[in-house]
Design a protein that fits this description.
Length: 137
């Protein structure tokens, strides 16, 4: 299994009533992750800079992490089983003496949202990238 990481970039988001499609990729290959429509609305609001009347769940998570001096460092899409993707969220907590890196299992859609709102990189293992179904325009 090739766990070497390849950085992927957010390409676009497509929304229907029943699901959201997030397109990620490299310069050579793009792939789709399907998720709940609420994630799509959250991503759309972030990407368009729309004003939110109240903080959303990802805003709350970001505020809690900021208050606890925890930073999102990176996201790694590390597995695919059938059409379900798996991801790991890497967080860093630094005190005066110690820097701790935490690795948390999370849905790719949540990880991508946190990555975009915190401007941190998203990676995919080469093995997972090889298994993805390419998306064409």
């Amino acid at each position: 299994m090739d766990s070497e990481l390849v950085q992927v970039t957010f390409d676009k988001i497509m929304q229907t009533r029943s699901y959201t499609v997030v397109i990620l990729g490299t310069k050579d290959k793009r792939f789709a992750i399907y998720t709940d429509p609420s994630i799509g609305r959250t991503l759309q609001m972030h990407l368009t800079g729309a004003e939110k009347p109240r903080p959303l769940t990802h805003d709350l998570i970001n505020m809690i992490m900021k208050g606890m001096n925890i930073q999102v460092k990176q996201v790694v899409i590390n597995d695919i089983q059938d059409t379900i993707y798996f991801a790991r969220l890497f967080l860093e907590h630094e005190t005066e003496e110690v820097k701790t890196i935490m690795e948390i299992d999370a849905r790719p859609s949540d990880c991508i949202t946190l990555a975009l709102t915190n401007d941190v990189p998203v990676y995919c293992t080469k093995d997972v990238l090889a298994k993805t179904v390419p998306v064409e325009d």
